[in-house]
Amino acid sequence: MKSVVTVGLLVLSNVFMTLAWYGHLKFKELKWFENAGLVSIILISWGLALFEYCFQVPANKLGFSGNGGPFSLLQLKVIQEVITLITFVIFSLLFFKNETFKWNHAVGFLFLVLAVYFIFKK
């Protein structure tokens, strides 16, 4: 059960992280933000990143084997990276229609899945 909660928290964390890091690139299309300066964008992104941390920190605390969780530190990091890339691809395909997912991206993801396999291999 801790592993499911950990992964769920990491997914939520990565949604907010992706919005904080890349969501502002679409702000110019929103009337409220079309003239926002860099400082405003940074503060908005920082506010979104707060929610990222509200999910990321508990996920790592709960999931870390040193705290009774099911994952080693390296396993937590690899899980987080794979979730980050999956979240980013979904985000970019939904919100940035001019971005395409190509064969070399699929090969890169395959290597990441292999990395997960080898990190979890005993």
Automatic annotation (TrEMBL):
It holds the Pfam family DMT_6. InterPro entries: DUF486. The keyword Transmembrane applies. Keywords: Membrane, Transmembrane, Transmembrane helix. The chain crosses the membrane at residues 36-55, 76-96, 102-120. The keyword Transmembrane helix applies. This is DMT family protein. It comes from Flavobacterium difficile. The lineage of its organism: Bacteria, Pseudomonadati, Bacteroidota, Flavobacteriia, Flavobacteriales.
